[in-house]
Amino acid sequence: MDALRQVGLLNPDNLLWAISIAILLAIYLRSRSRPTLEVSSLLLFDEAPAPAARVRHLRIDPLFWLEAAILGAIALALAGLYLRTAPAAAQGKTRALVFDLAAGMDAREGGGTRLDLAKKNALGIIDAAPERDRFILIGYALEAEMIHSETANHDSLRKAISEMRASAVAHRPAAQSAALMRARAAGEVDLFADRRPSDSILADAGLSARLHFHQAGSPAENLAIVSLDPGIPNISRGHAALKNFGRKPRVCELAIDGAGKTVFDRSLILAPGEQAMVPFGPLTSGGLVHARLVSPDALAADNERYTYAPMDVAANVIVLSPDAVVRDDIARVLLAVNSNFIITAADPAKFTAIDEYSLAVMHDCYIPSVKARAILLVFPPASVSAVADLRITGTIPAAQLTGQGRPNANTTPTFLGPTRRINVPGWMTVKASGAVPGMHEMIPMVAVGSLPSGNLGLLSFDIRDHLLLDPDRLDALVATVELIRELTAPTQLQIVSTGAFLAIPAPRDARIVTPDGSSIPASRDKWGRLRIRPLQAGHYSVESISQKVDIYANYYDAAESDLSGYSVPSATMAAKYTTAVDSISGPKQLRPVSMLLILLALLAMIVESALLLRNARRWGLRHV
Amino acid sequence: MLETRAFEPDFLRRLDRLVLGVRRARSVRTGQRTIGRVQGLGIEPENFKEYAPGDDLRFLDWNAFARLDDLLIRTYRAERQVEITVMLDASASMGLPARDDKFGLARALAATFAYIGMAENDAVRIAAFGSHRDGVKIRSTPFFRRREQYQMFRPFLSELKCFGETRLSAAVGEFLLQRRTAGVLILISDCLVNQTDFEEALEHLIGAHHEVKLIHVMGEMESAGSYPPGLYRVRDAESGAMRDVAFGPQLAETCRGKVAAISERVRDFCISRGTIYSQAFGARHLDAILERELPRLGVIR
Q1: Contact B227/B100 with Cβ under 8 angstroms?
Q2: Which of A123, A356, B35, B57: CA 20 to 30 A from A551?
Q3: Tally of domains in chain A
Q4: Of B96, B190, B244, the CB nearest to A38
Q5: pLDDT value of position A328
Q6: pLDDT of B276 higher than 80
Q7: Is the Cβ pair A40, B232 closer than 8 Å?
Q8: Which residues of A are less than 8 Å from B233 in CB distance?
Q9: Whether residue B26 has pLDDT greater than 90
Q10: Between A154-163 and A114-128, two packed helices, what is the crossing angle to 10 degrees?
Q11: What is the pLDDT of residue B88?
């Protein structure tokens, strides 16, 4: 349908050209018609003789016909005339093999995985295809990716297919749609996925007539660790949330390790579809907490989860703000994040920096002499420009906190008060951005980065008037808590979700060891950071000569981890599949003939010029 | 538009002294028994006549009998109770050709005769007829008697629009259904209707004892056939019928002949029925028309 729209009269541009031709024709016919005159009565013309019928003959003038042919050819070329022809036998068909590479395809199926099953199917198609057939290989998970461009080299294609791996991320519908759109150029599209794409995606891609869906796998039982909360060491218990996606009760063994010791190991029974909160602890000390489902199930990626429990040691924190109420609010939030904080609150006008702090929170002030391993600047003043490349360009009276990386963040913007307009340097990562009401401008609201002296966090909005304690503006509190956690977390240990982008400061180039044990070299960017995007669940290690950073990637997605659904191919889909395998001659192709028409128009113009020259010579004219 | 002229003071001043002559100066009241000549019932003595058996003894002049010993009956001039209706053809044909302003001329004439008719405090109204899909439609003003009320005709005339077919006999039939007292009816039309329909209409009016005066109105271009030369497809404004014609001197001559033939036929019929026929061709010649045609229509000074 889209192909037709592109080259046919359904394309508005082409339709406009066609209408213009119709208008020209109407003008011509109108000029040939007799004018109509309204009279009081035909009684007056009863005896008038009928006008002699005068027949107009078209003059057979070659120049006229040539002009008509030129105009016609150009008009049809502009209108996008096409021919529907059978594909040339010598050329072969073009087929696109589209693979779902999200976590669901890594589920166990028989002796292998769903992806292995899909690969086997695809290789079967390639083996059955004639040598001249061409293939495109496309994969998608978070983004659509052209794995192998169009080729008739089947060996190269087989190799590319065998090297494909599923990622521990959920597939995005936009990526699926983009992959199918990329495949649109092919005559036929084979989609290998564990679940059927929605009708809207198929409609968007415009492939309904040429798509062959190959279901990979069958319904499977799966358990997943949904979340892991370590609690506060020695104070509060932690919780692990487990979910049974199956349709039967499942027995599973959950083991939780903290600081190298097993703190929980128990067998549990989960009802069908149940999500259970399993308490454990409290932990006796902080550090890395690792929960794992020991019982095997269909999908391994969501059976492990890591989190970090704050260390049970006192840390000095200084809170500076000209506003006593704000100092009080920040202290409350800090104690909620970590009750081991020893907080000192002071008015910056009366403060003298002497001690060294784990964290310094400065609201509406900046004192360069404060020594801290991490600094959180809240609503910073213009004097903060002393910090490298951080420049305040102004203050706006209100802003909307929009992009915060959470699914519902964009749908419910949080209205905030006065906000600094800050030029965030490249070495900082913007965690959340905001919109200026009434303007199409996005400004950074939350950012974090690393300096040689320590981490630097930035909140550009003002938190006066108890903003952090306002239940209607919880997003501001969540952003603040997440930022404080990130600033106070050990720099050598990071816990992220799969698919997240990471920027790790590194003194020099490093090697990344992935969860499967392979090692990949990584280069620093101009700000001295290594950029990583973990796509496998588990432990990554970034190793350079002087430092080692451990990254733990967690995977969980409610839709992707649910393997109990199975979209049975409809009768029509099955029929299409059969046709695709058995049929030798493919569907007819649309072949635009615009170039041919333009060539014809040019030829006609040359002939017309020759005729004009001949006439000019005959009439003795020096020019036409 | 020409009809506005009929309301200009200068124009009206020239009509001030004119009176519409009415042949039948007496009205016949419903239920009154009349034998022979209709007796006037006014208060102004007109004449004396010798008594004849059957005369109303109330009108016997006893003084004359005493003096002359003759039985004389006093006769009176009847009170004028004439209703004048100016009936205006407002069919679609009256609006064409637009350049001729035929309908403007017709409306000016209608207003003129209404003004003249009001000179003797007669009841005057203007009625216009056209036809819809549903049938004939007659729109009419109320009767006005005094010249102070003359301006009341102005909005009616200015709002008139030409529409539909002429259907003259149907319009007359509708008009007669109103069962008003017979009076003077001035019919203004282009008479572009088939002869049978026209004759039937006139017969009905005459049969209802109306004193009919017909003013035949036509446009200058229309009557002369002076259309722009060339091949045209002409469409009848009323029936929508079409035919191809070649305008030129030859067709103009044919048109003139046709108009003359129609006029002659209508005039002959009017004369045969004792009806006054008058021509008003060309809106440009309103003054000349009035000067020429008013006496013919029985307007007296």
Answers
A1: no
A2: A356
A3: 4
A4: B96
A5: 94
A6: yes
A7: no
A8: 34-37
A9: no
A10: 180
A11: 93
Same structural domain for residues A193 and A283? no
CA distance A325 to A347: 11
Task: Specify if A506 maps to a domain.
Answer: no
Together in a domain, A264 and A381? no
Distance between CA B270 and CA B293 in Å, rounded? 15
Average pLDDT rounded to a whole number, residues B30-56: 60
Parallel/antiparallel/unpaired status of strands A391-396 and A356-363: unpaired
Residue A525 lies in a domain: no
The answer to whether residue A16 sits within a structural domain is yes
Whether residue A254 is found in the same domain as residue A267: yes
Residue A233 lies in a domain: yes
In this prediction, residue A583 carries a pLDDT of 39
> How many residues belong to chain A?
624
Q: Point out the domain boundary residue: A430, A462, A489.
A: A489
Nearest CA in chain A to B192: A41
Asked if A455 contacts A375 with a C-beta cutoff of 8 angstroms, the reply is: yes
Strands (E), A185-340: 188-193, 211-215, 223-229, 238-244, 250-258, 261-270, 275-280, 287-293, 304-309, 315-320
Interface test mutation site (partner B, options A40, A42, A45, A54, max chain B beta carbons within 10 A): A40
Is A217 strand, coil or helix?
Answer: coil
pTM beyond 0.90: the answer is: no
Say if the Cβ atoms of B235 and A34 lie within 8 Å: no
- Please give the pLDDT value at position B86: 93
Tell whether the model's pLDDT for residue B87 goes beyond 90. yes
Q: Do residue A186 and residue A328 come from a single domain?
A: no
Average pLDDT across chain B, whole number:
83
Residues of A in contact with B236 (CB under 8 A): 39, 41-42
> What pLDDT shows up at residue A508?
77
Is the Cβ of B190 closer than 8 Å to some Cβ of chain A? yes
User: Residue with structure tokens 């040339």?
Assistant: A88
Cα distance between residue A276 and residue A297, in whole Å: 17
- Sequence-separated (6 or more) residues with CB below 8 Å from residue A343: A317, A318, A319, A331, A334, A335
Q: Looking at A246, A277, A307, which one is the last position of a domain? A: A307
Q: What is the CATH number of the domain that holds A111?
A: 3.40.50.410
Query: Does B97 sit behind a cis peptide bond, omega within 30 degrees of 0 on the bond before it?
Result: yes
| DSSP state for residue B268 in the 8-state scheme | H
Chain B residues with CB inside 8 Å of A52's CB?
A: 246
Structural domain harbouring A293: 223-307
Residues A196 and A234 in one domain: no
Q: Output the domain CATH number for residue A235.
A: 2.60.40.10
A36/B225 CB distance under 8 A: no
Closest chain A residue to B194, measured at CA: A43
pLDDT along chain A (624 residues), means of 10: 56 78 78 76 81 54 82 85 65 83 87 88 88 89 88 89 89 87 83 84 71 83 89 85 88 88 88 88 86 88 88 84 93 87 90 86 90 91 77 87 54 80 86 81 87 84 90 87 86 84 80 88 81 88 83 89 64 40 49 86 90 77 60
What pLDDT is recorded for position A319?
A: 94
* CATH number assigned to the domain comprising residue A368: 3.40.50
User: What burial letters (b/e) apply to B226-245, b meaning 16+ CB within 10 Å?
Assistant: bbeeeebebbbbbeeeeeeb
| Residue predicted with more confidence, A285 or B32 | A285
User: Do A378 and A448 fall within a single domain?
Assistant: yes
Domains in chain B, please, with CATH?
Answer: 2-25+80-224+277-300 (3.40.50.410), 44-77 (no CATH)
ipTM exceeding 0.85? no
Contact A37 B93 (CB under 8 A): no
Express as a percent the part of chain B with pLDDT over 70.
89
Find the CB nearest B192 among A35, A41, A50: A41
**A193/A108 same-domain check:** yes
pLDDT at A109: 81
A328 and A428, same domain (yes or no): yes
What chain A residue is nearest to B252 in terms of C-alpha separation? A48
